[in-house]
Amino acid sequence: MTRNVSGWAAHQQNGSLEPWSFSRRDLLDDDVAVRVEYCGVCSSDISAIRHGTSFPLVPGHEMVGEITEVGTAVTQFKVGDKVALGNIIDSCGKCPPCRAGRENWCERFPTLTYGNIDPKDGLPTRGGYSTEYVLPEKFTYHLPEGLDPAGVAPLMCAGITTYVPLKRWGAGPGKTVGIVGLGGLGHIALKIAHVLGAEVVQFTRTMDKADEARALGADDVVLSTDAQQMAAQKGRFDLILDTVGAPHSLEPYMSALAMDGTLCIVGIPEGDLTVSPLSLIYGAKNIAGAGSGGTRETREMLDFCAEHGIVADVELMRPDQINEALARLARNDVRYRFVLDLTAQRQ
């Protein structure tokens, strides 16, 4: 049995998104059905549209909505609950990462919100640019009370992607943390690092963002295109979180690391990154990567953001404005995250 859903899909590489009707599975015993109310627009959606190989493609992996139906074995949710969904909807549940609650590193590979084949039903996964989503309760999260639901949606990607490395590498009092890029990822990273108690420095290519960065929690702002300012950062940082999705040099940031410091990549530029071996060896520095998070980390992130009132700064768009949103996002014309208001199409 399947259920009819409507959404917005690209039917070929680089194609515009168009209204499209499709099917989702009927609920398994441990599934919930969620009426999607808000869905964030992520740069990875653009990448999937440009480079994906399986079409039609319904993007969207940052959702907030309301449960409309539950399977017979569901115990943590009921009809009417407000929930949040992220970019992972299932995993093998048996490998060491899954048993540790870090399902994003599932050795079978996690089932992604869109662009995969779901092993449970053999159907292509379709994303949150749609009226409804069906997934296991394990990968469904209660929406924290008191937070703007539209602002929560991007936390399910940008929030968890930046929260995990900031926590893992000890951002907090006595640490100096640099954030490279002030976009969809960077502005949330800045908020989180500030609340964690670190000295936070924003790297930006244009100083017209300096006041915005300070308003979001930056203690200092450094112009990354100014060689003199960058040279003055030598040895300053315990951790630098690089959120930029465009090609750029890592060497200035390696120089800015203190001894034993870490440069963590969370943005995904096209093409390879290069770094001099000596910039790693001198000072015993580290390059690391991070991406998304598992169920344990995601629940912790949502609790943390609820406690401190952290949400993304968003601009709401109607579903029929999705192509405009994607075009503006591609040219970085957003402060700081687009969110589709799916309730608008039901009014």
Q: Work out the helicity level.
A: 10-25%
Mean pLDDT: 96
> What low-confidence regions span 5 or more consecutive residues with pLDDT below 50?
none
Shape: globular
Verbal overview:
The protein starts with a strand and ends in a 6-residue tail after the last strand. α6 (210-216) links the parallel β11 and β12 (220-223). α4 (158-168) packs across α5 (186-196) and α4 packs across α10 (295-308). The chain is 24% helix and 28% strand. The radius of gyration is 20 Å and the shape is globular. The chain has helices spanning 43-51, 96-99, 149-152, 158-168, 186-196, 210-216, 227-231, 251-256, 277-281, 295-308, 322-330; strands at 2-10, 17-25, 31-41, 63-70, 82-85, 88-90, 111-112, 132-136, 140-142, 176-180, 199-204, 220-223, 237-242, 257-265, 286-289, 314-317, 337-341.
Write the layout of secondary structure elements.
Layout: E1 2-10, E2 17-25, E3 31-41, H1 43-51, E4 63-70, E5 82-85, E6 88-90, H2 96-99, E7 111-112, E8 132-136, E9 140-142, H3 149-152, H4 158-168, E10 176-180, H5 186-196, E11 199-204, H6 210-216, E12 220-223, H7 227-231, E13 237-242, H8 251-256, E14 257-265, H9 277-281, E15 286-289, H10 295-308, E16 314-317, H11 322-330, E17 337-341
Parallel strand pairs: 10-11, 10-13, 11-12, 13-14, 14-15, 16-17
Antiparallel strand pairs: 1-2, 3-4, 3-8, 3-17, 4-5, 5-9, 6-7
